[in-house]
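thought: fold this chain, then report.
action: predict
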Amino acid sequence: MSLRALPAALAAVLLVGTAAACTSDSGDHGNQWVAPGKGQAAQLLDFSDGGRDAATKDVAFYGFHGASRGMATGPDGSTYALGQKLVQLKRDRTVSIRLDGGGWTSAGGVVAPADDSVVYGSNGQVKKIGPQGNETVLAGASGQHRTAGHPLPASAPATTVRFTANAGPFGIRPDGSILIADGDALWTLRDGTVRRLYQVTAKSSDGLPLLLAQNNAVDATGTAYLSPESEGTGVDGTLGDVVTVRPDGRLGKPLLPAKISGLPGVLAAYRVRWLTGDGSDGVFVLVYDRSGGNGAVVHLHSGKAELIAHEKAGAASGKPCSITRPVDALHLPCGLPEAMTYRSGSLILGGLADFVLQIRVA
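observation:
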């Protein structure tokens, strides 16, 4: 768990059943949902006690309130949030449970292909839920899991390979192949075969092996953005640690300016909480500083970096907060939720909060 997520998780436990304690607007908008304009943020869903959408809490809570295990956007614009259960948030702001994860001991990663199915990682396997609820195993052998650091085959029949316990999908390339983060390895899954694209060999500054976290992303060109973390610590890696893997296998690094307007300090030193593709050739990155503060969303594209959202001083992740009308995304009164996904001109953020945030970026 990251430096930022730890106090937020504690706050989430303490605040279950309490009403929202801070508000960003004194105007009375009743229960009306007002969509944000470009550069603005609004709570797409407020399921806090007494909140506008409190009636959805019994469902939304299980996908969006605790630590996020994955978020994705479906072809119909639905947001899928993997938490204690897999929750679907439709564009009309209704929520439903797509899958009850009562038997999960470890789960992570979710993607939504064009066939209305959902693919997710659970207990060292990658599984698919069909439109009718039928479940099939796409990759990963059941039983004993592998440990990171050992040699791996270049390719293998998908259901015979042994993954680590936390292996999970995080993106779909233009050719339909599914990207899987598996401890120290990146795999691609297509037509019943997994192929190894990359294996982490680097170590952190303190000598610990680096593993792939669950917050990786892919852009519309098929380039994967991998965010490593130190083994056994759960501490998020920095933006300077992010590795890119192009469709042709070439490795690289995102181009980063030393600094970015509106965000103090060196950009590369910020820790990465989450990444998501931008629908084009870049990614949005949710970052925070080494103290756990200064939460922000940065857009990396075409060799440039642009600040999209920034918490006000004193805003804390996990703290109850109600936004009753759209606000300037660069001056957010609420702490940013921990996970996000891109949906046709907007970012949808959830996790470790009793609300879902929408930030309009186009």
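thought: worth noting. The CA atoms of residues 147 and 181 lie 14 Å apart.
final: tokens above.
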